[in-house]
Specification:
Low-confidence stretches: 92-99
Order of helices and strands: HHHHHHHH
Shape: elongated
Structural class: mainly alpha
CATH topology: 3 helical TM bundles of succinate and fumarate reductases
Largest sheet: none
CATH architecture: Up-down Bundle
Radius of gyration: 20 Å
Number of domains: 1
CATH class: Mainly Alpha
């Protein structure tokens, strides 16, 4: 192996490590955000209390946002650069090189990632800034708290908004179904054909499970289950 190829391989390894670490941070946020969102099923009081806590701890919230923005920027940058490098040199391998069947999720990671980024912008415009369905944003409940529950319920009663969220969350599940496995592969956790298959299945289950939990909120409202 010549020096240029060795340097290229080391560059790919370093980029994938940054990609993996930032991905784990974002996965942690996805799980934490989900747990907060699921208080919706506990009723108006529970969700509005959760929102009230966040609105009254702005230093914590903004610090978390800055930290997540940095990780998101790192993740996007290295996702795009790795894709470009791999397209230019198809023989670049992971730290652990195994022959394995590629999946639809693995082949579309960059596209699903960019779609998720677009959805994130929409989501911020919707629930954070209140630019979508704005007539119901910023209203207060009987306890003088922001009525986030009412805003969520009214928004997901709209067919277009619900279907857009559901399709975006399918995309998120698809992305996550390969992302966790990819991180394990980068950090050399997959060391045998058995562990590769096992972690790949667990990654698919994780992605599907998280997506379905997120989807349960718009579905339950749109289908009038609650």
């Amino acid at each position: 192996m010549n020096n240029d190829k060795m340097q290229n391989n080391y560059s790919i390894i370093g980029r994938k490590l940054f990609l993996g670490f930032s991905g784990l941070v974002l996965l942690g946020f996805i799980i934490g955000h989900l747990l907060g969102n699921l208080t919706f099923f506990l009723g108006r009081d529970a969700l509005n209390n959760y929102a009230y806590f966040l609105h009254n701890n702005k230093a914590l919230v903004y610090s978390a946002r800055v930290f997540l923005l940095i990780n998101l920027t790192i993740h996007l940058y290295f996702s795009i650069t790795i894709t470009l490098i791999n397209n230019a040199a198809k023989d670049v391998k992971y730290i652990v090189n195994r022959n394995m069947r590629t999946t639809f999720a693995s082949k579309t990671m960059i596209f699903s990632g960019l779609l998720i980024f677009a959805f994130l912008i929409y989501h911020l415009c919707h629930f954070t800034f209140g630019w979508i369905d704005s007539d119901f944003h910023g209203l207060y409940d009987s306890k003088n708290r922001l009525d986030v529950y009412g805003y969520v319920y009214h928004s997901f009663s709209n067919a277009f908004i619900s279907l857009f969220y559901l399709s975006s969350l399918v995309c998120l599940g698809l992305h996550l179904s390969h992302a966790f496995f990819s991180v394990c592969q980068t950090f050399s956790i997959t060391s045998s054909s058995h562990s590769i298959s096992n972690i790949q299945k667990k990654s698919q289950i994780l992605g599907g499970f998280l997506a379905m939990l997120y989807m349960s909120i718009p579905l339950s409202v749109f289908l009038k289950i609650i």
